[in-house]
Specification:
Neuraminidase, 2 helices, five-stranded antiparallel beta sheet, 31 strands, 3% helix, disordered N terminus, mainly beta
Length: 409
């Protein structure tokens, strides 16, 4: 089943959300790719079909400034026809994609030979787009599942999907401990997958865990309504990492074994409240892991960076504002390698790094000054997307979406 987009003629500014009287910071940019209307930032308002339902923005993906999509935790997806103009997906007026009606969406997996893949609440629901988000198709992910513990199935949320350097497919799902499955062929109704990693199942896979391996799977930082990726892979899938309790677990064999690399952090005196709950890789070797929670004491937020695919990690330097009680929730990167962290606390958080995560700059000042004037200001950001280091979209609670064409400055 395939659905396509239709273009609504009503201006985005006619939607229910907006800005306080006399302030044009949230007015709609009708399609130009110039600077946002309030100097740095402009509000992007969801269409009526989503704005009444969406409470959490969970992911973006853009092929250009005039073609992109945004997902919401409630199972809604909307399409961009310009940097700040959203069109609804034509199905039943709700913005729902094809597939099970109760699916929720957590963002997108863009870099597979299947095209754009929707991360959702059931890995069996393979929702893909072969035309860069203009339309989507649903099919069952796999026809046969072999060797899986009976308590874990592909019905659970899709955490990650990708191909490794030998063209073998791997899929990770979360809930009940989690699983990694492998398949020699791409997902589809005729594909067969085998359970390759599940150390906590009623059937342990592999049957005997080496002493250096992690003894648990995905028990830290995964929330069904947040986009944070506690399970992530390098850009060529040669290295896979996830957090589990007090362990940072890393695989270099396609998910067959995960070694605990928590001791490989510099400086050795580093002591964290918890392991990272979101990771982002910008190459086969370079990536970051981030943690920060408002529920913890001030000064416990941190960022780790790696230059060898996740075997070793070093503590980066966050801005002084991170010494507050802040939640660092989402991470993303621009094509040039610039990294971003979003979150919230006393105010919205937006940091960037141009040196692979070693040092970070606070980009939040103008964003917070503007967001505070809105009728329904967000408490925190959850996710973002950078077409390049200047053209950036961020999203958070209350269906909040903002765009900048100036790198937030």
């Amino acid at each position: 089943m395939t659905v396509s987009l239709f273009i609504l003629s009503a201006a985005v500014s006619s939607c229910s959300a907006g800005t306080k009287a006399g302030n044009d910071a949230g007015s709609n940019d009708s399609g130009s790719d110039g600077p946002a209307t309030n100097g740095a930032w402009a509000q992007v308002v969801p269409m009526d079909g989503a704005s009444s339902q969406a409470t959490t923005v969970t992911g973006f993906w853009f092929s250009s400034s005039s073609n992109g999509v945004v997902s919401f935790a409630e199972g809604l997806v909307e399409h961009f026809s310009a940097p700040t103009t959203i069109d609804a997906i034509a199905l039943d007026g709700s913005g729902k994609l094809p597939g099970p009606a109760d699916d929720s969406y957590y963002g997108f997996v863009p870099s597979t030979s299947l095209g754009l893949v929707v991360r959702n609440s059931s890995a069996k629901s393979l929702v893909t787009s072969s035309n860069m988000g203009t339309s989507f198709t649903y099919a069952a992910s796999y026809g046969t599942l072999s060797g899986a513990p009976p308590t874990i199935t592909l019905d659970f949320p899709l955490l990650w999907l990708g191909e490794d350097t030998s063209n073998k497919w791997h899929v990770a799902v979360g809930a009940g401990g989690g699983d990694v499955y492998s398949s020699p062929t791409a997902p589809g109704p005729s594909a067969t997958v085998t359970d390759t990693w599940h150390p906590m199942g009623t059937i342990t896979v592999p049957a005997t865990l080496p002493g250096t391996d992690c003894a648990a799977f995905v028990t830290n930082g995964y929330y069904s309504t947040q986009p944070g990726q506690v399970f992530a892979a390098s850009t060529d899938s040669s290295s896979i990492v996830y957090s589990s309790g007090s362990s940072i677990c890393r695989s270099s064999d396609g998910g067959k074994n995960f070694v605990d690399v928590s001791a490989n952090i510099t400086p050795t005196s580093f002591n964290a409240t918890s392991t990272p709950w979101t990771y982002t890789f910008t190459s086969p070797t370079a990536g970051i892991g981030v943690y920060g929670s408002e529920a913890d004491a001030a000064g416990t937020a941190y960022v780790l960076y790696t230059t060898d695919g996740g075997d070793n990690w070093t503590v980066g330097t966050l801005p002084p504002s991170a010494e507050n009680m802040v939640s660092l929730i989402g991470t993303f990167a621009a094509p040039n390698g610039t990294l971003f962290i979003v979150g919230g606390g006393p105010s919205l958080v937006l940091y960037d790094s141009i040196d692979g995560g070693k040092t970070w700059t606070d980009l939040s000042t103008k964003l917070n000054a503007w967001a505070s004037t809105l009728d329904n200001p967000p408490l925190r950001l959850e996710t973002g997307f950078a077409l390049d280091a200047q053209h950036i979209w961020v999203g958070g609670d209350s269906g909040f979406i903002a765009y900048t064409a100036t790198g937030g400055q």
